[in-house]
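subagent[fold] <- orchestrator: predict structure for attached chain, return tokens only, no commentary.
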Amino acid sequence: VKSGRLTGKMLGLPGMLASKNYRRDRKKYKSTVVSLTVSMVLLMTAALFTIYLTRAGGTILDPPKYELKYTLFLSGGQEDEQTTGDVRKLLENEPGVEEVWMYKSIYLSIPVEENMLNEEYSRVNSWSGEDHPDGKVPFTCPAIVLSDDEYQEFLKEQGLKEPDAADGADGTDGTVLKAVYYDQMQVYNEEKETYSQVPVLSDEVKKRPLAAGIYRAEETPDGGQEVTFEEKLQVEFDQETMQLPEKYDAQGRVDPIMILSERQFEQYRSLMSDGTEGESYFAEFNIRASDYRTVGADLQEKLEEKEEWDGIFYTPAADAEMNRQAVAAIQVLCYGFITLITLIALVNVFNTMSTNLMLRRREFAMLRSVGMTGRSFRLMLGYECVIYGLRSLVYGTILSLLISFAFWHFTSRAGGGNEFIFPWSWFAAAVAGVLLIVGITMAYSIGKIRRMNIIDELRKE
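subagent[fold] -> orchestrator:
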């Protein structure tokens, strides 16, 4: 068996012997290569299983980001800022409260044609024909208002530009409120028995001015009620974002959401009020607390004493306690599964490599008997490890990519378009683990071989 001249020049006699050994007895090394490859693929498969299962659990259960929530109703008067500040001060000064995040929220009524909305969205809301003023669906779009700094930071993170105000396209003196929006609704497909994210709005709604305003119910001469729509401004779904602000808790949301700045909020209020009285809106306080039960009970009692504040206090964490336990159970199951697979893989590799090396005791004794030094012996075995270690990594990488593609293919068909995932961190851990276990096994085997008697090993049949 010939080895390349370059191998001899670069690696010397130990490298040449290692190359010859591998070329001569490829079948002997095949079990070691297969063992290392399978171990790497098992770890990558377990990691992918964990990632997809945890993501599916998080999508279905959607645990809240905050344990407590207080919604304050504001009338749009001059005292709103003072009231909001007093509420925030009370919440932040409560012992046990770790964080309070406040944002404003409004609801825009935008009548649209029913064919402009997703069928799943229409099914969830189930409008009747009597609820269609002028033959249009009374579509309501919530909007959250961020501070100017938070808004600019959010646009920067998403790679978006700040929308500009523009004159009404219909020639009126009104102003089009151009907004960044998030348009993904979580729905359950009964046929496929899966959850998926689907858009609510069609392309016909986006990038065009739409009338927004107020629905009014007026009595008719026959004693009934007639619902009419009064246009106050125009809105435009200008730029779509694929993520909501990190702190925003979207639990239970089924509508698209606009993300507005304080400047746009003031523009909205000026158009809605007609210069008379302010337009009502909400101040939402999301509260994070370590012991949410105790903190929640104290806060609820204090807030109820403030009769001048019109608000609702509730505890999302209590409603999501079972969901949180389910997510924790999923994570324990997944990481326990990974630990088990890792231990099995380590034992498998160690047993296969050490057994193969022990079967070559006579060969090693012969090399030592003709004068191979301990350093050359270690280098020869080290080069052999590098050869089948690199081959195992090549095969393992190819199989891991194929398995990742298979996971993505089946989950996107069942779950509605997940992005392709290759767990690079787990891949790096698998590569490091393969190299580490090869090194440990080699050191263990060399130690045992050095303690063996050369004469006794050569006499054995």
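orchestrator: received. Logging for downstream: The two ends are 25 Å apart (CA to CA). Residues 167-174 have pLDDT under 50 and may be disordered.
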